[in-house]
Amino acid sequence: MTDMRTETVSLSGHGAYRALSLRRQAILLMLTVGLCAAFVGDIATGPARYGLGEVVRTLVAPAEADAQMRVIVWSIRMPSALMAMVVGMALAIGGAQMQTILNNPLASPFTLGISSGASFGAALALAFGVALIPMAGDYIVAANAFVMAMATACLIHLASLRRGASIQTIVLLGIALVFSFNTALAIIQYFAADQAAAAIVFWTMGSLTKATWPKLAITALAVALTLPVFLRRRWQLTALRLGEARAASFGIPVRRLRLETLILVSLLSAIPVAFVGTIGFIGLVGPHIARMMVGEDQRFLLPASALTGALIMSLSSVLAKIAVPGAVLPIGIVTAAIGLPVFLYLILKGGKEIW
C-alpha cells in the first residue's frame, strides 16, 4: 500500500514538472513570436513608412522587390534592426548572469560601472583623440570603450578577491565607479571643444543609426560564443542561486565559476556598448521580467532573458522612430523611459516578485 502511494506521488510530481516545463516552453514561443513581430515592425518604421505586407515580401523575396525598397530594407534598416536584437540579447544575458553570480537584484553592467567605464573610454577618443589601443583606426572610439569596460570588470574582480570582501562590497564599489566615471566624463566635456562635447553627449545616449554589418557580426559572435558556455554550466549557475555555501557543498568551484562568468559577462557588456553607446536598464529589467515568467532554472531563464532583452530593444527602436515625427530619438533615452517605470513597478509590487 505504501509503495502504491509513493508511486502515485511520484507520478503526480512528474506530471506537475512536465506541465511546468510545457508552460515555460510556451512562454518562450510567445516571446519568439513577439520578437519576430517587433523586428518586422522595426524595419517597417522610419522616415519613410512602409506597410508590413510590403516589408515581409521584401524580406522573403528580395529579388522580386523594388530596387529602392530592397536597398532601404536590406542595406539601411536591416543592420540596425538586427543590432537592436543582438544588443538586447547580450545585455540581458549579461545582466541575468551578473545577478546570479553576485546574488543581487540590482547587479547589471549599467549599475556596476561597466557601461560608465566604456563611456569614459569613448569620451577620451572623441574629445582628445586618445587611443588606448594603437592603430585602432576607424574603431578608436569602440576600442577605447571596450578597453575601459574590460578594465572596470577586472577592477571589480580584483576587489572581490580581497579578504573579507562581500557581495555588498562589490555592488557598492560598482556604484562608486559609476559616480567616478560620470564625474570624469563631465570634466572631459567641460574641457572639450563644442563639437566634441556634442559628440560625447550623443554617444552616451546610445544610438543604432551607425550600425554596420561588421559591427553586427562582432556583437553576434560574442553572443554566439558565450551563450553555449552558460548553457553548459546551467546546473552550476542554477545551484549558485541557492547560496555560495550550498553550491560549494555540491562540489561546484564557486570562485572559478564566478570569475569565468564575470569575464564572459564583461565581453557581452563591453562589445555592444562599444558599438552603440550606453544602453541602460536592459540588463537590469530584462532578466527580472524573464525570471518572473520562467523562474530561476537557467535552461529557461537564459533564453527567456535573451528574448526579453531583444524584444525590449526592438520595441524601443520602433518607439524611437515614431515618438517624434521626422526624427529618431537616441535609443538609450527610450530604454531608460521604458525600463525605469517597469523597474519601479517591480519594486513597489514587492521584492519577492523580482527576487
From TrEMBL:
One Pfam family from the record: FecCD
Presence of keyword Transport: yes
GO molecular function terms noted in the UniProt entry: transmembrane transporter activity
Record keywords: Cell membrane, Membrane, Transmembrane, Transmembrane helix, Transport
Gene3D superfamilies: ABC transporter involved in vitamin B12 uptake, BtuC
One cellular-component annotation, GO: plasma membrane
CDD domains: TM_ABC_iron-siderophores_like (cd06550)
Record GO biological process: siderophore-iron import into cell
Transmembrane segments: 27-52, 72-94, 106-133, 139-158, 170-192, 212-231, 262-285, 300-320, 327-348
Similarity-based family: Belongs to the binding-protein-dependent transport system permease family. FecCD subfamily.
Protein name: Iron complex transport system permease protein
Record organism: Mesorhizobium tianshanense
Taxon lineage: Bacteria, Pseudomonadati, Pseudomonadota, Alphaproteobacteria, Hyphomicrobiales
